[in-house]
Amino acid sequence: MSVADWNPRSWRGLPALQQPEWPDPAALDDAIGRLAKLPPLVFAGEVRNLTAALAQVADGKAFLLQAGDCAESFDDFSAASIRDKLRVILQMAVVLTYGAGVPVVKMGRIAGQFAKPRSASTETVDGAEIPSFRGHIVHGDAATPEARVADPERLLHAYHQSASTMNLVRAFTKGGFADLTQVHKWNQEFVKQSAEGERYERIASEIDRALRFMAACGIDLGAEASLHEVDFWTCHEALLLGYEEALTREDSLDGGWFDCSGHMLWVGDRTRQLGGAHVGFLTGVENPVAVKVGPSATADDIVELGERLNPMNIPGRLTFISRMGAGRIAELLPPLLQAGDKLGFTPVWVCDPMHGNTFLAPTGRKTRRFDDVMAEIQGFFSACTTEDVWPGGVHIELTGENVTECLGGSDDVLDTQLDDRYLTTCDPRLNARQSLDLAYRVAELLRN
Ligand code: TRP
Ligand code: MN
Asked: How far is the CA of 398 from the centre of ligand 2 (A)?
């Protein structure tokens, strides 16, 4: 399929992995038809601005912070949970901006991150085989055959939840919540209460001095719009192609197709086949796109995906998100970085230190160790340094809540505590304090 015969439906002629079994295809078509009439969630002009921001990242002049839930939930949906998630991402962004000395592109796995690929299509619960949980956009998470029936009305529910999430995010990021002085104050609170306080205190007090220096120079910190507003972008895995198709719209200004379900879309490590429907779909939309690459990815994959997804060599169009596991990144990433160098453009390289480091705790809970997450990030930075590639960003699963899903961090969540507040509907997330720990440590890496 060439870009010339691409249209939002043309993926239907290609093999699509990881799609749910919809029991009533007519009801699915009907839901997709209704979605296609609803307003877009993002606008083409914004998407173009994001591509430009990512071009800066590719060029080593900005850093990408991509963070949010593994899977958004229909149940845990409130102003407070959106606010807390945004707050922790902003707090991380301030620290990283200072550490990197370049702008941080802030992007949430939010307002659309509902669908999950699964390694097995069924699971066995209490001796009964039921469909695996694929996210609230598909069905309920209860471990019963009834809950796991795929229901197309959930596509509309996901759209409406995304719209109201987006609305609040826009209000917060432009309405004063993102004020730099305020976000810095939250960080000072964190540093005061942190076991690593002294270590982090240095960066926090330097930021403090920088702010006071600007004020002393006569810059009115309250009046300067750039100091209390941020651009915040959304992204999710483009997994359910019917949903993406329905939200793909032709730009009224200068043609071109944009997937208006979010600013950036990525294709997962399990669905990145060159001849597959997911890659085929993403070839035709003008959004910036990303591909997750795990241990099975080869240098040829990088070259072929790069040529397929960015044939015009548009700066900022393509990001590779590496997810190798702490133990393997030193061996597996360098050949991919070298292959990226052969492309006609510079891709953005991002580290996802979460997905290669998941294991089952003795209690049977899926978890991750903070130290493994940090070790993978360190491995990523050192591979990038050796290969002379800019370490473009990090991709983190986190929540603003005080959950106990990942082990360790400076407050040390223990495996005996995993059951205390294990709330995720899918993978284990860093809690707010672990996320800030991570930001301070990445800032240290960026300074060196
Ligand atoms: N607008 C700038 C930016 O987005 C500075 C800024 C204001 C900021 N509030 C922020 C940075 C909160 C990080 C977090 O970079
Ligand atoms: Mn996940």
From this structure: 10
